[in-house]
Amino acid sequence: MAAEPASDLEFRAAEPEKGSPRPLRALASGGGSMCLEHTLPGEAAFDYNTISISANYLLERTKHRPAIGIVCGSGLGSLVDHLKEREAFPYEKIPNFPVSTVAGHDGQVVFGLLNGVPVMCMKGRFHSYEGYPLWKTAMPIRVMKLVGVNSVIVTNAAGGINDKYHVGDVMLIKDHINIPGFAGNSPLVGKNDENFGPRFPGMSNAYDKQLRQEAKSVVKEMGIEESVHEGVYVMLGGPSYETVAELRLLRLLGADAVGMSTVAEVVVARHCGMRVFAFSLVTNKCIMEWDSDEEANHEEVIAAANARKHHLQELVGRMAARMAQ
Ligand SMILES: O=P(O)(O)O[C@@H]1C[C@H](O)[C@@H](CO)O1
Ligand SMILES: Nc1nc2[nH]cnc2c(=O)[nH]1
After folding, report:
1. For the whole model, what pTM was predicted?
2. Which residues participate in a purine D-ribonucleoside binding (predicted)?
3. Cβ neighbours of 84 (radius 10 Å)
4. Which of 316, 279, 303 is nearest to 103 (CA)?
5. Given 20, 57, 105, 280, which residue is catalytic?
6. Which of 100, 141, 168, 319 is disulfide-compatible with 268, CB 3.0–4.6 A?
7. Which of 55, 139, 215, 260 is catalytic?
8. Distance between Cα 158 and ligand 2 center (Å)
9. Ligand 2 center to residue 105 CA distance, Å?
10. Where in the chain are the domains?
11. Does 34 or 268 have the greater pLDDT score?
């Protein structure tokens, strides 16, 4: 094992290299003496060297060399509890890493063997509603890449828009609608880092077809076809759940399930050439009628995730085994 770094604090203080882009400031002249100044929020994304520091911290401390990464959605962190030869690293100890602030997201990178396959897991993810810019919510994907991961399994809890979906169903994600992206809010905004990928990555094959096929045969093996669908995930910023009118609009757009995560991670994973398999657990049925008195809430999301954790663990475990072949 490599020598211990002098202190974690040294790492924490690491700043993006000199010359990396500053936050953009655009000056828009409104005519006459009026002048509107608009500053895009947040810092520039961490550069390759800064992310290498996080990756090296982990590589120096774990014996595992995973090619598969797993992002655990709300209430799905127990996916990693059955890993063999577990090695866990709290986010706050990892240099340059954000910290989780949401119930149901523990905040640990966990390495271990899943069905004998080495994996690197995010037990807890980051969301833009926590105050993080999108690039930071997806920064762990780049850390995974530098650790050696080439395929990711991304999971989330989502509201079911499609009226055929029930609480506890699984939706294999075949595509997404990136609502923040429509407004120019992408994790790839800013100077492109060619070390990770191209300026203009394609997204028409974001969710690997072959892995979806594998997942369908896993689902068959498990005998859970009835409760598994394939559909389109739409990402909104949250943290408020949707109004009935918004949900009706999202349904018109072709969305089957709605959530507040995943898309930024997938965009960043595809940008750096990773294969992506993703699924949503339907934790609540979206309320599509104005006369309903029900309201979505995070407690029901966590409870629904908890109720299905064994099936999801098995699905992820079987997929990891196939992805490793
Ligand atoms: O991290 P995921 O997308 O699984 O979490 C969903 C979206 C919100 O964070 C939360 C709302 O209940 O669940
Ligand atoms: N936006 C959104 N995210 C969710 N996460 C779990 N359920 C929901 C939902 O209904 N809406």
Report:
1. 0.88
2. 242, 284
3. 10
4. 303
5. 105
6. 141
7. 260
8. 5
9. 15
10. 8-15+46-323
11. 268
CATH of domain 8-15+46-323: 3.40.50.1580
Distance 158 CA to ligand 1 centre (A): 7
Distance, in Å, from the CA atom of 67 to the CA atom of 55, rounded to the nearest integer, reads: 14
ipTM exceeds 0.95, yes or no: yes
Partner residues linked to 156 by β-bridges? 280
Assign residue 214 a region (left: φ > 0; alpha: ψ between -120 and 50; beta: otherwise).
alpha
Q: Which of 45, 138, 157, 264 is catalytic?
A: 157
User: Is 294 annotated in the active site?
Assistant: no
| Predicted confidence (pLDDT) per residue in 11-41, tens digit | 333 443 433 433 333 323 333 333 333 334 5
Using a 6 Å cutoff on CB, does residue 158 contact ligand 2? yes
Q: Among the atoms of ligand 1, which is closest to the Cα of residue 302?
A: 12
Instruction: Give the bridge partners for 154, in sequence order.
Output: 71, 278
Task: Give the pair of three-digit tokens for residue 66.
Answer: 């995973």
Residue 127 among the catalytic residues: yes
Q: What is the mean pLDDT of the chain?
A: 88
- Average pLDDT (64-82) is 92
Give the annotated binding-site residues for phosphate: 74, 105, 125-127, 157, 261
Q: Tell me, what amino acid is at 221?
A: E
H or E stretch including 227? none
48 is catalytic: no
Shortest CA distance to 269 belongs to which of 144, 157, 180, 119?
144
- Which residues on neighbouring strands pair with residue 111, listed in sequence order? 87, 120
